[in-house]
Design goal:
globular
């Protein structure tokens, strides 16, 4: 696993993105920030993804029926645009 992580971090996309950076996401409202990266394989099947992915969280807390929560989404980096 460590060698896969090292290899994934060599992808040049990670040189320009950092945890906490804010983005707009295609097809979604609001601002999002990177919470965790890189995600390079499916956690259940262990199948490697063909492109760079990150876990992002909504900058503005999610409120449903008066309950405040955090909205996390795993997305390919191509859907994110730096704000």
């Amino acid at each position: 696993m460590e060698s896969k992580l090292s290899e994934a971090l060599l992808n040049p996309v990670w040189a320009s993105h950092k945890i906490g950076d804010e983005y707009a996401m295609e097809g979604r409202k609001g601002l999002w920030k990177i919470a965790y990266y890189p995600i390079f394989e499916d956690g259940k099947s262990k199948e490697e993804y063909a492109e760079a992915r990150a876990l992002v969280e909504a900058v503005k807390p999610l409120v449903i029926a008066g309950v405040v929560g955090i909205d996390f989404v795993e997305v390919p980096m191509r859907y994110l645009s730096r704000v």
